[in-house]
Amino acid sequence: MNSITTLRPALSVALLLLVQLLPAAVRWDIDPASNAILLRDLSPHSDHIEMSGEQMSAVLRWDIDGSGAFRCERSLVFPMLRTIPNDTHASLRHRTALDVVSLLSVNGRSLEGECVQAVTLDGYMRVSSRFSHAGGSVSVQRTLFPSTDLPLLGEIYTLANLSDRPLILYVPSFSQSFTTLEEKGVYGSYIISTDIRGSGTFTLNPGESRSFDVIFQARTQTEQPVYPDLREEFDKRLSMIGLLDSNLVLQTPDPVLDREFRFAKIRASESIFKTAGGYMHAPGGEAYYAAIWANDQAEYVNPFFPFLGYWKGNGSALNSYLHFKRFINPDYKPVPSSIIAEGTDIWDGAGDRGDAAMIAYGASRYLLARGSRAEAEQLWPLIEWCLEYCDRALNTEGVVASDTDELEGRFPSGSANLCTSCLYYDALLSARMLCRELGSGAAKAAEYARKACALARNIEKYFGAEVGGFHTYRYYDGNTLLRSWICMPLIVGLQSRAEGTIAALTSPALMTDDGLLTQEGSTTFWDRSTLYAIRGIFYAGDTATAYGFIHGYCVRRLLGDHVPYPIEAWPEGSQRHLSAESGLFCRAITEGMFGIRPRSFKSFDLTPRLPEGWDRMALRHVRAFGSDFDIEVVRKGDSLQVMTTDHSSSATSVIDASEGRAITIKL
């Protein structure tokens, strides 16, 4: 892979991006004593965050008002309680703005004069407040989190007596339930309930505290409610987060980048639901659950999970590809874009979006990184079918035709778009490597290599263009406006137009405070194309620009007004925390900054991009390729040194490297 050589202007571009992407005010701080972020600015503010478990998801819409009081509306989603019509969006949903603190009494009076003291996010939400109560000052700590495996949202409340005299605390008995209409549920009526556990009258001496629980849950009429110990449920949540924290650990001189990477691992991994059709990763956003998509799951997040080694992530990835495999057919009719309703139905409302290319690209990369021959043998027929489908879809100019792209007609994509052809190109490269691993024959591997070379030439001929004054790509035939997805050739190593493409992506025509506009002249941005672009700019070798871009992005997403995860889009969805985008963020590091490209079940190419001023960077406990290993990149004068350590044997190998040149690591 050739890197860009004209990088002198890139540092100034990177600094410009850094300034441009910094929020007007940094609202959050990194907690140096933990993995959390802490709300720095306690002035009036509102935000929303999604958190998920196997059986439910919750979007917390919270705010601090002008008096300093905390308010929260909980949007509860239960994906396995299906509603009618049983379509993509048929998860039972319920919103409640119950103010639990308003139900309490201290010395016979309701609490008043709340002033929020701290808000903490760390895979859960914790809010600490002080109440200037007439009977004596008290503090209240709220801890909100979803259960890891039960259909409930838990909230633990702890009240402490801050005064110098005893206080009497009244925690009421409280149980509230709603029963949905029978004709609106696949399984009949559902019961949605809220219960306080630990009610009573308690004397709190000075300095003493008391806790109680609030459980929000839903169930069918034949099921019994569950009332677990929320401290045990919270410990299970912490254990899940701790497991993620122990693998694929990013260590760089940039704490904001490291922390955002860590939060992205959580969001990418928590949104996996235990459905009747097996574990299914889901985007979320109060809309997309118990279903899989050819882009969000097959293309975006599945290739990330082998690096993290999270068993549930790998299981959901394999399961998603097996679901798509059900739809391959001898007539080469399109596979569905989405398999919905716990695997019992499909959605193909946008026609062929290039879904076969998405699946072939993601599945082949997943299998190489996963390093499992058994899984590869299961999925190889799916990959072969998808590649053949794409080959049959080539138009007269030799690029892949499709009805739409992953934006499903929101923006024009012509009869053949750049994204689909680039995904097919990369899938051919990976399939050639899989052929060797599976013993599928040298002839087939050579055929895939030949097709990839031909497609690369055709991509240049068909899509290569001068657009907006930049030597870059048109997104489709007739396209005259810059599009964010012109980053796709950079992702797959097609770099003859890299310099002009990077200049176009970072120009005022596309770049905004929130990343890239989908199309020049619009107001719409999607994080997915921004994160692809960052990865592509790193992979192309413009490290200064890519690092400036991603650092500014992290400051905004982690410490700005809407935190702490990558988001879907704006204005659509109001910047929902769709989970696959967090996987794309992590891949901007693993495949972009570290330049990891799987080659076999036990080897990969590494093209590290160490930003100027950094002496080292590392990924600890990488779990891909059937191994557990570290990668450390150290600056040695004008060159680099790469150290890999295998944790099973404690063996370390040291390889000298130079900027922009790939080295092959064999495990």
Walk me through the topology.
Layout: H1 8-21, E1 28-30, E2 37-39, E3 45-52, E4 57-64, E5 70-82, E6 91-96, E7 105-106, E8 114-121, E9 125-131, E10 138-146, E11 152-161, E12 167-171, E13 175-179, E14 190-197, E15 200-204, E16 209-220, H2 230-245, E17 249-251, H3 255-270, E18 272-275, E19 278-281, E20 292-293, H4 294-301, H5 305-308, H6 311-325, E21 338-340, E22 345-347, H7 355-370, H8 373-392, H9 418-438, H10 442-463, E23 464-467, E24 470-473, H11 488-491, H12 498-505, E25 511-512, E26 515-516, E27 525-526, H13 527-540, H14 543-559, E28 569-570, H15 580-593, E29 596-600, E30 603-606, E31 616-622, E32 629-636, E33 639-646, E34 651-657, E35 663-666
Antiparallel strand pairs: 1-2, 2-8, 3-4, 4-5, 5-6, 7-12, 8-9, 9-10, 10-11, 11-16, 12-15, 13-14, 14-16, 17-31, 18-19, 20-21, 21-22, 23-24, 25-26, 27-28, 29-30, 30-35, 31-32, 32-33, 33-34
Helix pairs in contact: 1-14, 3-14, 3-15, 4-6, 4-7, 4-15, 6-7, 6-8, 7-8, 7-9, 8-9, 9-10, 13-14, 13-15
Structure description:
The structure is a single chain. Strand 4 and strand 5 form a beta hairpin. About 30% of the residues lie in helices and about 30% in strands. The two termini are about 20 Å apart. Helix 3 (about 255-270) packs across helix 15, helix 4 (about 295-300) packs parallel to helix 15 and helix 13 (about 525-540) runs parallel beside helix 15 (about 580-595). The protein is of the alpha+beta class and about 675 residues long. The protein has 15 helices and 35 strands.
Proportion of residues in β-strands: 25-35%
Helix fraction? 25-40%
The gyration radius over C-alpha positions equals 26 Å
Q: How many E-type strands?
A: 35
Q: Give the low-pLDDT segments.
A: 1-24
Instruction: Give the integer mean of the pLDDT values.
Output: 95
